[in-house]
Amino acid sequence: MTQAIPILMYHSLAIKKKGTVLRSIHVPPKRFCNHMKMLKILGYKALSMKQLAPYLRGEKQGKVVGLTFDDGYLNNLTHAAPLLQRLGFSSTLYVVSDLIGQHNVWDKHKSIDSNPLMNEQEIKQWLSYGQDIGAHTKNHVHLDKISEPDADIEISGCKQTLESMFQTEVSDFCYPYGHFNQHNIEQVKAAGYKTATTTIRGRANYNGVYSDLFTLPRVFIPYHTWPLRFYQKSFSAYEDRRVHKS
User: Fold this and answer.
1) Which domain holds residue 203?
2) Which of 42, 89, 132, 156 has its CA 20 to 30 A from that of 145?
3) Where does the protein end up (predicted)?
């Protein structure tokens, strides 16, 4: 019997005023801390995608959740890495390889606040805390809206850059914006990745059915995720009933 596994999706860890554009992608650091402590109290362990893979394939069983951070924000290093190390948790930071040390330029046209991304040394520090990195393309592009050759460069080039820069295997991919097509999936496989996450809502391996490792659903954790809602989203069918791209 397969187990339903929530793969938690976070972005930025920051306090934002009401009315902030796309406030939902931020989670206050204290609230994130409470989420992680709840997992610990309940006997769950948060794992990076690399460590979660055997559970997704049904090779292991246990009380686990996947933990992912999209984009590579500096505040993840500040507010998450030390806490995760203390709790014995691991996670995957999906890095935009050509924007390392810059900021979220892909959000500029939406009037979204500038948010610094980790630089090379900060990502190395992230890795030193026992955390992992994955690929989020070279430039945070809509893969399904660019040519196939350009998409291939974005997908495979990101992996090559990160592996060369940080001397670590990059085996996990995340589709920017959650946008992809069938050819993009095949490109991700051909590039040598072992998993790929989406913004499709739900838990992996729900209802005894193995999820496709290259279109994995996730549980989006927005700003106002209080303890009860966090529990519902992670450990009930709350998200599984909302299967669509968010």
Assistant:
1) 7-235
2) 132
3) Secreted
